């Protein structure tokens, strides 16, 4: 009798202890949703793939090649974080604060990044292909050799960004702000840039083949050796811009009355019937 009571009491104590355990701490057999990761845990594990880190404060986090694949970092604070080579493919980075973060070589393909704050961030050779970056803040960001092909950058802010050699081919950049950006040697073939702001842009040796540049305004820009073959320039305004060696021979919709005070050289290719440009000083 005493033995049966002791066994029952032990069983009851075990069940009570299990009931008091935090949800998701039931060992290897427990099925948990995306776990909440703390700063120290993330540092120790060098990442947290699939975790729910929404609204987390992770400012100044410093990791090398961490794994955050599929993570939810929506509205998290990662200001000045150093995440070189981070794996962030398929991540939720909507309205995430990444100002001054270092994400060189990061894989951020197919990520949800609408409204993300990447002002003054370093994204050298980062991969952002196919991501949703509408309304993103990329002012003063460094995007040298970054891959942003087929990315949605509508209404994104890229003022004073450095995107030398970056690939924007096929991207949607309607209404984007690119004033004073450096797009030298960048690829923007088949990109959509209607009504984008391109004042004071530097696009030396850049390619805009078959791009939609309708309604854009390019004033005080430098398009030396740029290739605009097949681009749609209906309603575009070119003023006080350098065009030595630029290829505009096959552009569509360009109005000579909206080409004001431009300069070029003997290599500049203009549409048939256009007057030669004055030489650049």
Automatic annotation (TrEMBL):
Residues 1-30 form the signal peptide. Keywords: Repeat, Signal. Transmembrane segments: none annotated. Pfam families: Pentapeptide (PF00805). This is Uncharacterized protein YjbI, contains pentapeptide repeats. It comes from Pannonibacter indicus.
């Amino acid at each position: 009798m005493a033995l049966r009571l002791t066994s029952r009491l032990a069983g009851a104590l075990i069940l009570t202890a299990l009931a008091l355990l935090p949800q998701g701490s039931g060992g290897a057999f427990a099925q948990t949703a995306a776990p909440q990761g703390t700063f120290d845990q993330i540092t120790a594990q060098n990442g947290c793939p699939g975790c729910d880190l929404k609204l987390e404060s992770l400012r100044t986090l410093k990791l090398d090649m961490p794994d955050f694949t599929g993570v939810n970092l929506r509205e998290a604070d990662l200001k000045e974080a150093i995440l070189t080579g981070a794996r962030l493919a398929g991540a939720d980075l909507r309205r995430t604060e990444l100002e001054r973060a270092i994400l060189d070589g990061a894989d951020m393909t197919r990520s949800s990044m609408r409204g993300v704050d990447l002002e003054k961030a370093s994204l050298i050779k980062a991969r952002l292909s196919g991501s949703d970056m509408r309304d993103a803040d990329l002012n003063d960001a460094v995007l040298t050799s970054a891959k942003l092909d087929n990315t949605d950058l509508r209404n994104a802010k890229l003022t004073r960004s450095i995107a030398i050699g970056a690939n924007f081919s096929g991207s949607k950049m309607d209404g984007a702000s690119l004033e004073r950006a450096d797009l030298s040697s960048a690829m923007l073939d088949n990109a959509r840039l209607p009504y984008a702001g391109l004042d004071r842009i530097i696009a030396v040796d850049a390619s805009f083949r078959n791009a939609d540049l309708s309604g854009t305004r390019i004033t005080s820009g430098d398009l030396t050796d740029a290739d605009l073959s097949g681009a749609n320039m209906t309603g575009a305004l070119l003023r006080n811009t350098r065009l030595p060696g630029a290829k505009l021979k096959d552009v569509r919709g360009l109005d000579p009355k909206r080409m004001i005070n431009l300069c070029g050289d003997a290599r500049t290719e203009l549409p048939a019937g256009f007057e030669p440009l004055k030489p650049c000083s």
